[in-house]
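Hey team,

Filing this mostly as a record. A colleague (T.K.) asked me to run one chain through the structure pipeline before their review meeting, and I want the input and output archived in the tracker in case anyone asks later how it was produced. No errors, nothing strange. Just documentation.

Input sequence:
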Amino acid sequence: MALFTSSNQAGTAALLLVAAAFLLIGVQGTALIRFGSGSASVELDRRVAAAVQRADEVAEQDPRLALGILEGAAIIEPRVGPAAGAFRAMSYESAVRRALERVRPGGATVTVAPAPAGLAVISPAGSILVSIVYRQSRNIQQVDLAPLVGSRQLEDAMGGLFVANQTATPSVADYIATAARQGTVIEAVTWRDPEDDRDLGRALNRLLKGQATIV
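Output structure:
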């Protein structure tokens, strides 16, 4: 039995999800490798342990390659699939943060915020809470915005920015309009890649200027 360790903090955070998936597998009669130590350790099937280690090595520099490796491991053990999906979501969140760094106005910073926001853009004018949601296929619904809209953190912020990879249903626009009448300012933006940076930047600037609309 070997010890699987990593010096890549960002990659390990995602790959722990993979290890958690294997906790439920219980493969019989195969060589195992141990991931982590102590109460957080998980024994992995050796057939996929090498793939997990390789994915960890490249996760920070090339998340797409890491995802491909994990999806390959899911072919060997299909129950890895949900963990690969979780890694995909984490990769999307990282990409959105990089996009916010590109479009933030001068003097503003992007920082981690407590759930449900996840991120915050802090500027001299005030702060904007950012909620990021990744969906594999279905459109965004008002239930996806509810945690941000209902957050008490918004009481001390200029507004909330909701970013998702899928388009929103018409009910989302109605939900945001209702929230606005109650004093909660939200912008919803679809962001998939850097080509959408312009829409993201415009939404952020509107919130910081108190001119929020629905995108």
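Quick notes for T.K.: Strands lie at 3-4, 32-35, 42-45, 109-112, 119-123, 126-133, 159-164, 186-190. The longest helix spans residues 81-103.
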